[in-house]
From TrEMBL:
Keywords: Cytoplasm, Nucleus, Transferase, Ubl conjugation pathway. It comes from Jimgerdemannia flammicorona. Pathway: Protein modification; protein ubiquitination. Belongs to the ubiquitin conjugation factor E4 family. Pfam families: U-box (PF04564), Ufd2P_core (PF10408). This is RING-type E3 ubiquitin transferase.
Length: 1283
C-alpha cells in the first residue's frame, strides 16, 4: 500500500540512494566462494570502501521448505543501509511501508543435542573472537550456546542457514562470528521483527522486545567493557601460538584484528541511525519514542546510571558526525525540543533542569590550546569571538562604516544601533547556554567555571601595558565572556547577598584565580607571599552544592571574582587601549592637517588620506563596541557592587551599606583589604574615567545610582593611607573632576547634586581633598613635580564646583582652625601659584618673541628652511606648554582668590605671609610693569590667557588679605613691591570696569598703609645696622654676594637648588666662621632651634616654613618633623634662652649706639633731644600697648566690636575716613560702633590708660635709676640736674 504522505527533498534523496543500493545488489554476481569463518587479522573490514553488502539468498531449513520472503529481504536491505550509511537514514514511514503484513513462520529445526567438549588450556583466537562478538550482540550461531554464561543469546537460525548454503563442507561447524561477518550478523539481528518474530524466534520474544536504540546502546556498553578487558585479562586467555603471532603486530593491531573497535563504532553509528530513522513498534503494540525523542529521557538522568547517556558515547556521537552538514542538528535538535516540551509541564518544585553535557566533550576546553587559539579550538569559542571590534572582525567596520565621513549622523547611528543589538543578542544566547549548563548539575557548573578560569589564566598577559595582541585572545572574545559573567552576577548586584561574597576566596586552595604575584592595594610582595602561602595551607572547604546559582554562596563568590578578572583582562583593557587609540588617531589627524597646510612647500610630495579613512572606520566600530549604553550600565551596576563590597571590608563595624561607614577609618588596615590585587581599584577608576571622558551621550551616570561612587571615593580620600598608590587616589579626584565639570552653559556636572547633598561628602569631602592636595607633593615617581599640578588642577575644579554650598564653606572654616594641616595646604597652594604663573608668563613672553620674528616677513623668509622649521617646532612646543601652565595657573589663582575671601588668618602665619606677599608683588609687576608688553600674543584665548581677569583676581587677593600683618609683609618685599604698579593696576581695573570706586579706594588705602610700614621698616633697619653673622642665617653672606652678581631676584622654591649649590661653593671659599649661621631665610633669629638630623641651627619659623613643603632636613635630606626639633645651637650647648639673651643685649647696644649718633646729629644741628630722651626713657613697649596698625603706643585704646581688635581711637578714625569696614575682617564699621576696651581683657578704657601711665612711670623710674647708677660708677654727681 502506498503511503500518501508526500516526501520531502531530503527523503527523496534518501530513497534514491536506497534504490541505487538495491540496484547494485541486484546487479552483483553471486559470490564465487564462501567467506572463511577464520579470516586473518589483515582481513578486517576497512573503513573505505565499505565492505560488500551481504546478499540474502533463499535458504531452505532442514525441517521445512519455507523460504525468506521478498518483503523480508527488502526489509533487511533497508536495515543494513541504516547501519552502513548512518548519514542518510531512511524515514520511518518508508520502513513501515516495507514491513511484512503477514509474517512467514518458517519451520524450526530441533536443536541438536550439544556434545560436551573437553576444556582447552587456552582458547584459540577465533574462539575468543566468536565469544566476544557474541557477547556484544547477544546472539550466537551455535544452538548449544543459547544460554551460555547465564545470559540468553538469540540463535540466528536464518543466518546459520545462509552460511550453510554459502560455505563448503570442510568449514568448521558450528559457525563462529568473526569480524568479517559482523555486519551480516548485526543485520540479521536487526532484521527480526519484534512484533512478529515467527516460530523460529518465539522463544526469544522477551529479548526481542527491547527497543532497537536501547539494544544498540547496550551493545556499545558491552564493547567498552571488552575493550577494557583486552588490555588486562582477556589477552592472557589466547593460545600461546596466537600470542606469538601477535607479538610483531602489537596490542593495537590485535585490537583491530579482533574487530571490537569496529564493533563499537558500528554500534554507535547504528544507534544514531535508529535515532534519525525512527523506531518500530514493540511486541506489546505500544509506540516507543521516535527518532531523537529517545534521547530526552536519557538526558534527564545522570550519566552514570543505566538509563543515562554515557559521556563517552555522547563524545563518540559528536566526533562521528561533527564534519557532516546538519547531522548534529538532526540528532540533537528534536531532543532539545523534546526537553522544552517536558519542562512545560514542570514547576519549580520539581527537578526540571536537564544536564547539558557540553562540558564533557573533548573540545570543550582543549588542554593544548594557546591564549590566542582557545577561542578557535574550544567548543563555544567561535561563538564568543563574534564582535564588532575592528581588529577582530575588520570586515564589519568596512561594511558598516565605509565612507563614514561622507554620511550623515543618523545613518551612522543606525548602523551602530544595529551592530549593538546583534552583539547583545549573541551575548544573551550564549548566557542562556551557559546558564542551562550551570543549573543542570554540579558537574556542569564546575565545567563552565573551569573553562572560564582556564581562559583567564591563559590570557593574563592582556593586563600588561605592552603586549603583542596577536598572542592573546581578542577583545571581542574576552568582552563577550565578561558580559555573560555580568549576567551571572545580576541576581546579587543589588548588594542583598553581599555577605555571601567570600573575601578570603582568592587565597583558598579552591580558588581558580591566582593573584599572589599581582601588586596589592597596600602590601609588599613579601607580605603578600606570606599571606597567600598561609591561605594555601588551609584545608579545602567543601563548596555548597545547589541547583540555584544565585543562592549558592560558593557560586556567587566565584562568579564575582571571575567577573572582576574578565573585566580586568577584557573590557577595561579595551577601554584603556581605546584612549590610546584616540590619542594616536588625533595626532595622525593633526599631522595630516599640517601636511595639507604645508603642501605648497612640498610640491613633489604626494599625500593621501587612505590611512585616515581606515582609522575613521575603526573609530566608529570601536564606538559601537565600547560605548554601548546597556553594557556600560551593566558594568557600572557591577562596579557599584564592588565599591560597596570594598567599603564594607574596611568598615570597622562591618555594617555597610545598611549602616553608613564612619570616617576617618582606623589606622590599622584590614588584611582582607590590603592583600587584594591593586587592579581591582584601578579597574574601577579606569571605567569611570572612560565614562566621564567619552560616555556623556550614553547617559550611563544618569541611569544608575551614584551614591556608591561618592561613598567609595570620599572614604579612601579621607583615609588615604589605605591605598598605597597615590595615582589611584589621584584618579578618584579625576573622576570627581570629570563629573563636576560643567557640561555647558548653565548645565552642571552629573555629580554636582550628589556632592552637594550626600551626607558623607558634606562632612568629609573638603578636608579629604585638602589633605590630598598636600599629599601629592611627594608621589615617589620621577614625574612627581609635574604630576602634582595636574592632580591639583582637578582638585581646584572640584573645589570650585562645590564652593556654592554653604556646608562645604563652613567645613573649610573648621579646617582652617587646624593650623598645622591648613598651613601646609596654603603653603602648597601658594607655591603652585608662584611656579605656574612664573612659567606661564615666561612661556608667553617666548611665544611673543617667536611670533614677532615670524611677523617680519622679509626677515623670516631670509632665514634657512631648517631654521624656520626648528623655530616653528619650538613654537608648537611652547604653545602646548603655555596652554597647560596658563590653565593650571588660572585655576590655582582662582582658588586662592575665593579661599582668601573666606578665611584670612591661616594666610597670616609667619611661614606664609611674607612669601605670599612677595609672590603677589612679583606677578603684579609682570602684568603691569615695564615687561607687560612682552606678554602680548596673538589669539591669547588659545592659551587661556586672560590678563585682565588675572589682574582682577590678584587685586582681590590683596584686598581680602588687607590687614596689618599682610601690610608689613608687602612692605618688607624690597625686590618687587612698588606703589607705581598698584597705581597702574587701579587705572586698568577702572578703565575696563573690573572694579568699582569703593574697591579702588580700599586699594589706595592699602598702598598708603604699606608705604607707612615701608618707612617704619627703613628706620628699624637703620637703628639696628648690620646684623652679626652669629645672629643671621648661614646663607647670608652667600646671598649678599649672589644678589650683587644677579641683582634683585625673587627668592622662591624654584631657585632653592641653585642657592644651595651656590652656598656649597661659597662655604669652601669663605672662612670657616660661617659655620655658626642660620641657613635659609637670612633674618635675625628670634627662636633658634637645632635640627637633630644635621645639627644645624635655624630659626623655628624658618624650619617650620621648610617643613610645610618638604618633610626632610634641607641639609642632609634625612626625614624630619617639627616634633624632632630641639632648642639649642650648632656652636655649643648654649640653651635657647641664653641665645635669646645674647641677641637682646646686641639689640640694646645697637639702639644705644644709634641714639648717641642721633643726639650728636641733633646737637650739631641745634635741635631739641627731648623726643629722643622720652623714647629712650620708655624703652621697649609691650605688644598689648601698641597700636596694631601703626605700631605706636596707644593713647586712647578702643575695641572694634566687629573683630574684637583693640586699636588707638585716632588710628581707627583715620581709617574710617576712607573705608567704612573693619580693617581686620572687612565687616561694616562706623565710628559710633567703636567702644572702649582692650584685646587682652575687658578692662575699661580709663583703666587701660591708667595701666599705660603706670607703665610709663615705671619705665622712667627704672631708666633714672640706671642713669644714677651709671653716674655713681663714673664718679659723677647725682645731684647735678644737668646730667
Amino acid at each position: 500500500m502506498d503511503d500518501p504522505t508526500p516526501f520531502s527533498d531530503a527523503e527523496k534523496i534518501r530513497l534514491k540512494r536506497l534504490a541505487k543500493l538495491r540496484q547494485q545488489e541486484e546487479s552483483q554476481p553471486p559470490s564465487s566462494s564462501a567467506p572463511s569463518a577464520s579470516s586473518s587479522a589483515s582481513a578486517s573490514r576497512p573503513a573505505q570502501p565499505l565492505a560488500p553488502k551481504p546478499v540474502l539468498q533463499e535458504a531452505v531449513p532442514a525441517s521445512t521448505g519455507s523460504r525468506v520472503t521478498k518483503v523480508e529481504s527488502k526489509r533487511l536491505v533497508v536495515i543494513a543501509s541504516l547501519v552502513l550509511f548512518p548519514r542518510d537514514p531512511v524515514p520511518l514511514y518508508v520502513i513501515k511501508s516495507i514491513a511484512p503484513k503477514q509474517p512467514t513462520t518458517p519451520a524450526v529445526t530441533p536443536a541438536p543435542t550439544p556434545t560436551p567438549k573437553p576444556a582447552a588450556p587456552a582458547k584459540s583466537f577465533e574462539d575468543w573472537q566468536n565469544e566476544a562478538l557474541s557477547r556484544i550482540l547477544q546472539v550466537t550461531l551455535n544452538p548449544d550456546a543459547v544460554s551460555k554464561g547465564g545470559v540468553r543469546h538469540i540463535y540466528l537460525i536464518t543466518l546459520a542457514v545462509e552460511l550453510e548454503c554459502e560455505t563448503s563442507a570442510d568449514t568448521p561447524r558450528p559457525f563462529r562470528i568473526t569480524a568479517d561477518i559482523f555486519d551480516k550478523t548485526l543485520i540479521a539481528r536487526l532484521s527480526i521483527d519484534p512484533n512478529n518474530p515467527g516460530d523460529e524466534y518465539a522463544e526469544f520474544a522477551a529479548e526481542l522486545r527491547v527497543p532497537l536504540f536501547e539494544y544498540m546502546l547496550s551493545c556499545w556498553r558491552r564493547v567498552q567493557e571488552i575493550r577494557k578487558g583486552m588490555w588486562t585479562n582477556e589477552p592472557g586467555r589466547i593460545s600461546a601460538a596466537d600470542r606469538c603471532a601477535g607479538q610483531d603486530q602489537g596490542i593495537a593491531r590485535l585490537v583491530r584484528r579482533v574487530g571490537v573497535a569496529d564493533a563499537g563504532h558500528v554500534s554507535a553509528s547504528a544507534a544514531v541511525s535508529i535515532i534519525c530513522g525512527g523506531e518500530l513498534k514493540t511486541s506489546t503494540g505500544q509506540d516507543v519514542p521516535l527518532g531523537s525523542e529517545q534521547l530526552v529521557p536519557r538526558l534527564l538522568v545522570d550519566t552514570d546510571t543505566a538509563e543515562g547517556l554515557p559521556d563517552e558515547f555522547f563524545k563518540e556521537m559528536v566526533a562521528r558526525f561533527k564534519d557532516e552538514d546538519d547531522a548534529l542538528v538532526q540528532i540533537f535538535g528534536p531532543a532539545l525540543t523534546g526537553l522544552s516540551g517536558r519542562i512545560r509541564g514542570e514547576t519549580i518544585l520539581g527537578d526540571y533542569w536537564p544536564p547539558v553535557r557540553l562540558p564533557s566533550l573533548p573540545n570543550w576546553d582543549p588542554a593544548f590550546s594557546t591564549p590566542r587559539t582557545i577561542e578557535l579550538m574550544s567548543l563555544l569559542g567561535p561563538f564568543f569571538r563574534l564582535s564588532v571590534f575592528p581588529d577582530d572582525q575588520p570586515s564589519v567596520a568596512e561594511n558598516y562604516f565605509a565612507n563614514s565621513e561622507g554620511r550623515n549622523k543618523a545613518d551612522i547611528d543606525s548602523a551602530i544601533t544595529s551592530l549593538r543589538g546583534t552583539v547583545r543578542t549573541i551575548q544573551n544566547n550564549l548566557f542562556g547556554i551557559l546558564n542551562n549548563i550551570v543549573r543542570a548539575s554540579p558537574t556542569g557548573k564546575d565545567g563552565v567555571l573551569s573553562y572560564l578560569a582556564s581562559v583567564a589564566r591563559k590570557n593574563e598577559k592582556r593586563a600588561q601595558m605592552q603586549v603583542d595582541r596577536q598572542t592573546v585572545a581578542t577583545d571581542g572574545f574576552m568582552g563577550n565572556l565578561a558580559a555573560v559573567l555580568l549576567n551571572f552576577c545580576n541576581p546579587f548586584m543589588d548588594a542583598s547577598k553581599i555577605d555571601r561574597i567570600d573575601p578570603d576566596y582568592l587565597r583558598t586552595p579552591q580558588s581558580r584565580i591566582d593573584v599572589s604575584k599581582d601588586t596589592k592595594i597596600n602590601a609588599t610582595q613579601e607580605e603578600s607571599d606570606a599571606y597567600y602561602k598561609e591561605g594555601a595551607a588551609q584545608p579545602d572547604r567543601n563548596p555548597t552544592i545547589s541547583y540555584s546559582p544565585e543562592t549558592d554562596p560558593h557560586f556567587i563568590t566565584e562568579s564575582f571574582f571571575l567577573a572582576l578578572t574578565f573585566l580586568h583582562y577584557g573590557p577595561i583593557r579595551s577601554l584603556v587601549n581605546y584612549n590610546d587609540f584616540l590619542r594616536s588617531y588625533n595626532d595622525c589627524k593633526n599631522q595630516y592637517q599640517r601636511m595639507k597646510d604645508e603642501q605648497p612647500r612640498w610640491a613633489n610630495v604626494v599625500t593621501t588620506g587612505g590611512n585616515e579613512r581606515d582609522d575613521t572606520e575603526a573609530d566608529e566600530a570601536l564606538d559601537a563596541a565600547l560605548q554601548d549604553p546597556e553594557f556600560l550600565s551593566h558594568m557600572m551596576r557591577f562596579y557599584n557592587l564592588v565599591m560597596t563590597w570594598l567599603v564594607r571590608l574596611v568598615d570597622p563595624k562591618g555594617g555597610h551599606p545598611s549602616q553608613a561607614v564612619g570616617l576617618p577609618l582606623p589606622n590599622e588596615i584590614p588584611k582582607l583589604f590590603a592583600m587584594l590585587p591593586e587592579w581591582i581599584i584601578e579597574d574601577i577608576v579606569e571605567f569611570f574615567i572612560f565614562v566621564g571622558k567619552f560616555g556623556y551621550e550614553s547617559r550611563v551616570m544618569r541611569m544608575n545610582s551614584k551614591d556608591e561612587l561618592v561613598t567609595f571615593a570620599v572614604t579612601f580620600l579621607r583615609s588615604s593611607k589605605y591605598i598605597k598608590n597615590p595615582y589611584l587616589k589621584a584618579k578618584l579626584v579625576e573622576i570627581f573632576f570629570y563629573f563636576t565639570y560643567p557640561l555647558g552653559k548653565g548645565i552642571p556636572g552629573e555629580l554636582d547634586v550628589t556632592l552637594n547633598s550626600h551626607a558623607l561628602a558634606l562632612d568629609h569631602l573638603v578636608p579629604a581633598i585638602m589633605a590630598f592636595y598636600v599629599e601629592v607633593e611627594q608621589t615617589g615617581a620621577s614625574s612627581q613635580f609635574y604630576d602634582k599640578f595636574n592632580i591639583r588642577y582637578n582638585i581646584s575644579q572640584v573645589m570650585k564646583a562645590i564652593w556654592a554650598q554653604p556646608t562645604h564653606r563652613n567645613k573649610l572654616r573648621e579646617e582652617s582652625r587646624n593650623p598645622e594641616s591648613f598651613t601646609r595646604f596654603v603653603n602648597m597652594l601658594m607655591s603652585d601659584v608662584t611656579y605656574l604663573l612664573d612659567e606661564s608668563l615666561t612661556k608667553l613672553a617666548e611665544i611673543h618673541r617667536i611670533q614677532s620674528e615670524m611677523g617680519d616677513t622679509a626677515a623670516w623668509e631670509a632665514q634657512t628652511q631648517q631654521h624656520r622649521q626648528e623655530r616653528e617646532s619650538y613654537l608648537r612646543t611652547l604653545e602646548r606648554q603655555a596652554q597647560s601652565y596658563v590653565a593650571l595657573g588660572n585655576e590655582t589663582v582662582h582658588m586662592l582668590q575665593y579661599l582668601t575671601a573666606e578665611v584670612v588668618e591661616p594666610f597670616m602665619s609667619p611661614e606664609i605671609v611674607e612669601r605670599l606677599a612677595a609672590m603677589l608683588d612679583y606677578n603684579l609687576a609682570q602684568l603691569v610693569g615695564p615687561k607687560c608688553m612682552e606678554l602680548k600674543v596673538k589669539n591669547p584665548e588659545k592659551y587661556h590667557f586672560r590678563p585682565r581677569d588675572l589682574l582682577g583676581e590678584l587685586i582681590d587677593i590683596y584686598l581680602h588679605l588687607n590687614c596689618p600683618d599682610f601690610v608689613i609683609a608687602v612692605a618688607r618685599d624690597e625686590r618687587s613691591y612698588k606703589k607705581e604698579w598698584f597705581r597702574k593696576a587701579s587705572g586698568i581695573l577702572l578703565k575696563y570696569g573690573l572694579k568699582d570706586n569703593d574697591a579702588i579706594a580700599t586699594l589706595e588705602k592699602f598702598v598708603s598703609d604699606v608705604e607707612v610700614a615701608v618707612q617704619s621698616g627703613i628706620e628699624e633697619e637703620e637703628a639696628l645696622g648690620d646684623v652679626p653673622d652669629d645672629f643671621l642665617g648661614m646663607y647670608e653672606v652667600p646671598r649678599r654676594l649672589w644678589d650683587e652678581i644677579c641683582g634683585c631676584v625673587l627668592f622662591s622654591e624654584i631657585y632653592a637648588l641653585i642657592i644651595v649649590t651656590f652656598y656649597r661653593i661659597c662655604t669652601n671659599l669663605i672662612a670657616l666662621t660661617l659655620s655658626q649661621t642660620d641657613p635659609i631665610f637670612f633674618t635675625l633669629m628670634k627662636d633658634p632651634v637645632k635640627l637633630p638630623t644635621s645639627g644645624t641651627t635655624v630659626d623655628r619659623s624658618t624650619i617650620r616654613t621648610h617643613l610645610l613643603g618638604d618633610t626632610r632636613d634641607p641639609f642632609n635630606r634625612a626625614p624630619l618633623s617639627m616634633e624632632m626639633v630641639v632648642p639649642g645651637t650648632s656652636v655649643s650647648t648654649i640653651p635657647d634662652d641664653e641665645m635669646k639673651e645674647r641677641i637682646r643685649i646686641w639689640k640694646d647696644e645697637q639702639r644705644r649706639t644709634r641714639r648717641q649718633q642721633r643726639l650728636a646729629a641733633l646737637q650739631d644741628e641745634g635741635g631739641d633731644p627731648s623726643g629722643i630722651e622720652e623714647e629712650e626713657a620708655l624703652g621697649d613697649v609691650p605688644d598689648d600697648f601698641l597700636d596694631p596698625i601703626f605700631f605706636t603706643l596707644m593713647k586712647d585704646p578702643v575695641k572694634l566690636p566687629t573683630s574684637g581688635t583693640t586699636v588707638d581711637r585716632s588710628t581707627i578714625r583715620s581709617h574710617l575716613l576712607g573705608d567704612t569696614r573693619d580693617p581686620f575682617n572687612r565687616a561694616p564699621l562706623s565710628i559710633e560702633m567703636v567702644v572702649p576696651g582692650t584685646n587682652v581683657s575687658t578692662i575699661p578704657d580709663d583703666e587701660m590708660k591708667e595701666r599705660i601711665r603706670i607703665w610709663k612711670d615705671e619705665q622712667r623710674r627704672t631708666r633714672r635709676q640706671q642713669r644714677l647708677a651709671a653716674l655713681q660708677g663714673e664718679g659723677g654727681d647725682p645731684m647735678d640736674t644737668s646730667a
